[in-house]
Specification:
1 helix; 5% helix
């Protein structure tokens, strides 16, 4: 099965300076991101410009996506709008002077947009997403949101080392 990220450049003449522009809809098969926030699977609309250069094909793209996740403090759902772009050179042949992991190669007439799209999304996502910078989170004892609790909210804390002595005193002395 052909990857949804592959784009065929057959229409682009291989003369330096030639250019084509496209509006693509890429079906993302799985979420892109981290456990707490990610761009969900679905359609990603991408404006792509490809240019012939002497070394290969220069791909420039812009896209918008919405990442969905949850606040790490209060667990409320959050949405983060992303406006991303990238520019990558896909070379016709491997350059031995450049690290193999830092190169993108043409695969015949195809270029694979998956890595630049993933990098653009993942590198822009917060590691610790928050619904609001001032989010106070949840009470660790009862799990209620701090912003919904009164200012004097507290729980009785009993030191486990002394808990066994509690039954030794008469009830009115406690």
């Amino acid at each position: 099965m052909r990857s949804p990220y592959k784009f065929n450049t057959h229409e682009l003449p291989r003369r330096a300076g030639e250019m084509k522009e496209y509006h693509l809809q890429i079906e993302i098969p799985e979420p892109i991101g981290i456990d707490v926030i990610a761009v969900p699977a679905g359609v990603l609309e991408l404006d792509l410009k490809i240019e012939s250069v002497s070394e290969g094909v220069l791909a420039t793209a812009e896209f918008e996506a919405v990442a969905k996740g949850e606040c790490i403090r209060c667990l409320d759902p959050i949405e983060l709008e992303l406006e991303k772009s990238f520019q990558e050179l896909y070379t016709y042949k491997e350059d031995p002077e450049i690290d193999k992991d830092d190169q993108l190669l043409m695969e015949g007439d195809d270029l694979d947009l998956e890595l630049p799209i993933r990098d653009a999304i993942v590198l822009s996502l917060p590691i610790n997403p928050l619904c609001d910078e001032e989010c106070t989170g949840l009470c660790p004892e009862c799990g209620t949101k701090w912003r919904e609790l009164p200012a004097d909210h507290a729980h009785e804390v009993i030191d486990a080392r002394w808990a066994g002595l509690k039954g030794l005193l008469p009830e009115d002395d406690q």
